[in-house]
Predict the structure.
Amino acid sequence: MTSFYDENELKELGLKAYGNNVKISRHACFYGAENISIGNNVRIDDFCIVSGKVSLGSNIHVAAFTALYGGKDGIQIDDFANLSSRIGVYSTSDDYSGETMTNPTIPDKYKNVQSAPVHIGRHVIIGSNAVVLPGVNIAEGSSFGSFSFINHDSEPWSINVGVPFKKIRDRSKNLLELEKQYLEDNR
């Protein structure tokens, strides 16, 4: 027996849409599955949480213990993105200023929840234990080292590290040629 859902089990999840060759661990959790779309050739590993409005393109890997909190504004992840283990992506966050209360047990009128869509572009790779905050646009080809704090937009084809992250150099675009070859080989 495999640890991934079979085709019948995938249908029972109630996802908005999913493509071919989707591998989702039986140990992943989905909340609001009717708002979650998944493309082709996607793998979601053990102990991941996918919640709210989330749209995954094709050829995406979401490694173990990663959480995608899409809320109402959503998370869009484009083709060929790779999310390493223990990443948190948030389209919604409490106000940490102390001016309002926090947490889901408190009625909204006492809170100031920040919410904005998150976009993760094509060929983005994010290292283990990184955090992505609401409203961030991670540009195509950006890469982030482990433990990066991603609280603002990135430059395309950049290598980034730190808390908060800083660009340290440009990233090679060679993988666009590899993508082209891959797509031709897999028609």
In short: The longest helix spans residues 174-185. The radius of gyration is 17 Å. Helices lie at 7-13, 174-185.
